[in-house]
Amino acid sequence: MTARYVLTSACIQNGTMALTVSLRQRLLGREQVRFVDEDGEAYTVEVDWKAGVLRGLGPYYQKRRLSANETVLLLFRGEEVELKAAPRPGQRSPAREREARPEETSPPPEPQKRRVRVAPYPKEVLFPHEPLEPPGATEDLRRLGFQLEGGPPWVYRAFSGRRRLTLVLLRLGEGEVERLRPYRLQGAYTALLAPESQRDRVPEGVGFVSPEALTRLARLKGRFPLTPWDLEDLLKEGRVDLEAVEALEDRLAAELSERGAFAALLLLLARKPLGEVFLLADLEAEALEEGLVPEVVRQGVEVLAQPPFLLLKRLSPGEFLLRQSVEEALEDLRAFAEGLAGRLSRARSL
Questions:
Q1: What are the residues whose beta carbons fall under 8 Å from the beta carbon of 163, sequence distance 6 or more?
Q2: Do the Cβ atoms of 235 and 167 come closer than 8 Å?
Q3: What does each of the 350 residues of the chain score in pLDDT, given as a tens digit?
Q4: Nearest to 33 by CA among 84, 66, 77, 3
Q5: Which portions of the sequence form the region Disordered (predicted)?
Q6: Does residue 65 come out as left (phi exceeding 0), alpha (psi in the -120 to 50 range) or beta?
Q7: Distance from C-alpha of 140 to C-alpha of 154, rounded to nearest angstrom
Q8: For the chain: N or C, fewer Cβ within 10 A?
């Protein structure tokens, strides 16, 4: 319930408020009442039933600088009575005046400083006419047999006779993936170049090449006769990452071990006297003691019985003749290789 009370000069002078009918009904039987103003400040007011007034409101009148004929609103809320001075004509209400006037005792808190992270613009946006630097992986690709022709997108090509291998890369965040589409339609291998740690940002169905994998391939070339066509095998799978390079390394190691097995077979045959006839089964048994599996022995014997080696002669199924010593066969092979290399050199000079 809300009641309106118009102050008199006696109220202002004595700090009192007359007990009207509504006040008597609300405060019946009470000796003291707690009044609370707009600011939350409380006043203990005495109910003087004999004099018919409320005493103790002087501080509130002074605080609001109230005068006679001004109105005070009384809001009865349980055991408390809220005081609210009605706004004067042409003036703000006390609440709005309080909001507009800063508190003298407590200065307004300083606004918290917000930390703003500013993402730098890509270099191609800030300097659209300045040529971009090629990817750092360009040197590794050069060691693998690729030459940079331009970009972005960055076009790399490798040549071997009439064959040409084209690889087109776009660094992650360097542009839209659709820029690779025209190159892919022309038969080039296309991929996004991104670190291994960011491979999950490469869209599904888009080729992926990591600089770490290219660096490992370049180092691998120091151990194996690696060519751009070995890299093509990985590009066909759509990814050139460390896992794919490890698989390639295992395959190359297996091929190199086959060379070692072939050399071991030659050493085994070198122990036999010139012109000896032997059975393949016996040779397999001897080779097994040297750690060579029968399959490798059978393949090696077939190779040595054909040009350009002709080290062995097949007499019957499973029976062979050592037609010359291993040393002579290797010397003949070396002479054949040198002669062929000379002819190739002359053919290129024409």
A1: 229
A2: yes
A3: 778 888 898 899 999 999 887 788 888 888 899 999 999 899 999 999 888 899 999 999 999 999 888 999 988 888 889 999 888 766 555 555 555 454 445 556 666 656 655 545 444 444 444 457 899 999 999 999 999 998 889 999 998 767 889 999 999 888 889 999 999 999 999 999 999 999 889 998 899 999 999 999 988 887 777 888 888 989 999 999 999 999 988 888 877 777 778 888 898 899 899 999 999 999 999 888 777 888 889 999 999 999 888 899 999 999 999 999 999 998 888 888 888 888 888 877 76
A4: 77
A5: 85-117
A6: left
A7: 14
A8: C
DSSP 8-state assignment for residue 200: G
Please name the amino acid found at residue 188.
A
Q: Would you say domain 258-349 falls under CATH 1.10.1410?
A: no
- Residue type for position 122: P
Domain-wise residue ranges, the chain: 2-87, 131-240, 258-349
Cβ-based neighbours of 76, under 8 Å, separated by 6 or more: 1, 2, 3, 26, 82
Contact 209, 140 (CB under 8 A): no
Q: Which helix (H) or strand (E) holds 244?
A: helix 242-270
What tokens appear for 257 in the block? 């071990």
Dist. CA 14–CA 18, nearest whole Å: 11
Q: What is the CA radius of gyration of the chain?
A: 50
φ, ψ of residue 165 in degrees (nearest 5)? -120, 125
DSSP symbol at 15: T
